[in-house]
TrEMBL record:
Official protein name in the record: Nucleoside diphosphate kinase
Primary location group: cytoplasm
Region Disordered: start-end pairs: 88-120
Pfam families: NDK
EC number, as in UniProt: 2.7.4.6
Catalytic machinery residues: 115 (pros-phosphohistidine intermediate)
Subunit structure: Homotetramer.
HAMAP family (UniProt xref): NDP_kinase
GO MF annotations, alphabetized: nucleoside diphosphate kinase activity
Protein's cellular compartments: Cytoplasm
Superkingdom of the source species: Bacteria
Amino acid sequence: LETTLAIIKPDATRAGNIGHIVQRITDAGFRLRGMRLMHLTRQQAEGFYAVHRERSFFGELVDFMCSGPVVVMALEKEDAVRAWRDLMGPTNSKDAPKGTIRGDFGTDVGENAAHGSDSPENAVSEVAFFFATSDLL
Ligand code: ATP
Ligand code: MG
């Protein structure tokens, strides 16, 4: 079993979609090992997205991720990294099919409702960024 890091982004928390998204996660068979509602500081958002520091959209991404509370979750399942990315759908909500989280709850390439780790290695460090082992189920 694998654990991945998921975030319900500020657009989706603002729109009242936390419950709908958590329902999809549990319906899809993930075990919710950790969950925090928090408003990221600039420093936390910049640290979390440090790999994107040189990208043109970095400032916009950090502004967005600090624009309101997010829900940070650790999700366990077989092949969790891939399974959660499949459930989210493609990065750009405009390209994401109905039935995916980004298709149903996101708006565009920036405001796309959810984050997921992109590899098992990054999942380990992203989970550790937000959760102490003793806080995980
Ligand atoms: P995430 O890492 O959030 O799960 P992803 O792996 O599908 O998304 P990345 O390429 O890692 O996509 O981009 C990280 C995030 O940066 C995206 O989810 C999106 O919010 C934002 N982003 C990506 N591309 C753009 C862009 N061209 N303009 C604005 N924001 C963008
Ligand atoms: Mg990514």
